[in-house]
């Protein structure tokens, strides 16, 4: 029996999704299409009667703007929005800024798929002299330098996302708050892997589309209750046109081709 319901949204298409570049912690804006996708996410939630008391997002503008646009459509811009770097995208290390398909041409599809989707193997680490080093970014001024990643695998991304879920978000759900989490492809993969207890092998095939609300019903122990529209391996379901959503999932997978 479902006791709680939460909504997860990956940000709308970003400018570096358009340019097909590895993005990670680089702070790029939404594309024009991404702005539209995030308004559409709010519209479809409104049409289906969803309401929220609290939003959680990352400190990256593509997620923050998606959150704003979604809440604007729901006429909920007044609710508290908590931002945390713990919900940031997985740090893509030295791949940040590189074109994904050029990287396939240089290193081969097998290596790139290991970097993109393997569970525990991180991309090569960033150098602290890099323009992308988070230690020079005022967003992270309060974060101890040794906690700031120079690269992350999905496994190490989980080490920040899941404690944030358990320590911050779960208590607020238990207080009775209806929550929405607006985050990123890989930080949400980390979260749903935890919720749905997805195996390390199976998670490599999971891609989350931009700007589509993903609804989870959870029982009293925060174990997901499978929905009839769920697309395996998820128990949650995407809200919207299911054929279009499947095509968008395939589009994320196709960002790197052999
Ligand atoms: O570049 C990134 O940060 C992510 C999300 O856009 O890409 P991928 O889907 O390749 O992990």
Automatic annotation (TrEMBL):
It holds the Pfam family His_Phos_1. The record marks 184 as: Transition state stabilizer. It catalyses: (2R)-2-phosphoglycerate = (2R)-3-phosphoglycerate. PROSITE patterns: PG_MUTASE. The lineage of its organism: Eukaryota, Sar, Stramenopiles, Oomycota, Saprolegniomycetes. HAMAP family: PGAM_GpmA. One of its GO terms (biological process) is glycolytic process. GO terms for molecular function: phosphoglycerate mutase activity. This is Phosphoglycerate mutase.
């Amino acid at each position: 029996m479902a006791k709680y319901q939460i909504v997860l949204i990956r940000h709308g298409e970003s400018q570096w999704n358009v340019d097909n570049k590895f993005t990670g912690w680089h702070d790029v804006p939404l594309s024009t299409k991404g702005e539209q996708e995030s308004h559409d996410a709010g519209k479809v939630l409104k049409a289906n009667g969803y309401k929220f008391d609290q939003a959680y997002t990352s400190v990256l503008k593509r997620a923050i703007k998606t959150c704003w646009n979604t809440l604007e459509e729901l006429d909920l811009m007044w609710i508290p929005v908590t931002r945390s770097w713990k919900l940031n995208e997985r740090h893509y290390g030295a791949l940040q800024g590189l074109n994904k398909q050029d990287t396939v041409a240089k290193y081969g599809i097998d290596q790139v798929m290991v970097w993109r989707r393997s569970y525990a193997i991180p991309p090569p680490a960033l150098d602290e002299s890099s323009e992308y080093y988070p230690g020079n970014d005022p967003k992270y001024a309060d974060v101890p330098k040794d906690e700031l990643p120079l690269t992350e695998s999905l496994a190490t991304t989980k080490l920040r996302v899941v404690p944030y879920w358990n320590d911050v978000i779960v208590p607020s759900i238990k207080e009775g708050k209806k929550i929405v989490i607006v985050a990123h492809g890989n930080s949400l993969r980390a979260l749903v892997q935890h919720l749905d207890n997805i195996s390390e092998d199976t998670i490599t095939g999971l891609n989350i589309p931009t700007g589509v609300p993903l609804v989870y019903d959870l029982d009293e122990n925060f174990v997901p209750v499978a929905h009839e529209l769920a697309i395996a391996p998820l128990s949650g379901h995407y809200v919207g046109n299911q054929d279009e959503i499947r095509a968008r999932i395939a589009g994320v997978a196709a960002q790197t081709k052999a």
